[in-house]
Amino acid sequence: MCELFFDPGLDIKATESPMGFIYGPDIFGPQVENRKLNDISKSLLDPNCEGPEIVYSIAMDVGKKNHRELLNSMHLLYGVVTYAAGKLGTEPIRSQGHIHKVSPFSNWSTPEVYEIWSGEAIIYIQEYAEDNPGRCFAVYAKPGDVVVVPPYWTHATISANPNKPLTFGAWCDREYGFVYDGVRKHKGIAWYPVFNEFDEIQWVANPCYQSSKLICKLPSDYTDLGIKKNKSIYDTFEENPDTFLFVPSPQLRKEYWINFIP
User: Fold this and answer.
1) Whole-structure pTM value
2) Could you give the C-alpha distances from 251 to 114, 151, 240, 247, in angstroms and in order?
3) Which residues span the domain enclosing 61?
4) Which end of the chain is more exposed for a tag (fewer CB within 10 A), N or C?
């Protein structure tokens, strides 16, 4: 069993062997989907690296049973993910990177609201999956931290500590979908994370993109979105469900996304 260092407001426990989740009696959720090394290897700095066969397990659409109808009516979905401990060669355990597809509900690529439960995360985001990646950020997050990914941005989730599994939850649009084309065309994201000899993350520019600058930072303050520090995003939803209407309907906060800093 993986120990959670932040209470997400849901009776869910992450497991390591096999990787997945155990749901409490008042929680609904699916069987996990596993992402294997072969699924993401082409987006790594070293596509032939060795690492865990199952890189991470994901369960999309979990929540309290008494919220199921409300979540459906709001077009809102909560997902949970747990990463293996270890490394992918010299690289950290991570996702390959994607953009959210344009949702037929809003006709927008939708944002995502991450919350770290255990481990150490870096939410990497870049404006575009084109030759010019635009602004690039690496947002370092620990248990209890929230990171918002804005609409249309490419992003990847990285485990910054090879000795600990990473577990997190996220609010998503119910008709979520992932677009990988731009990332795969460029053999990954614009900046590759790599461990140095002290297991610290270093960043290597991906030569398939034009030159860019990487800004490493802590998460921004999202109180303007109704997100409160030291309160889980599920508890916030339970208290005021309308807080997260901007996830399936990002056009409601279209001014907020201009010059967004995560």
Assistant:
1) 0.96
2) 19, 10, 19, 9
3) 12-253
4) N
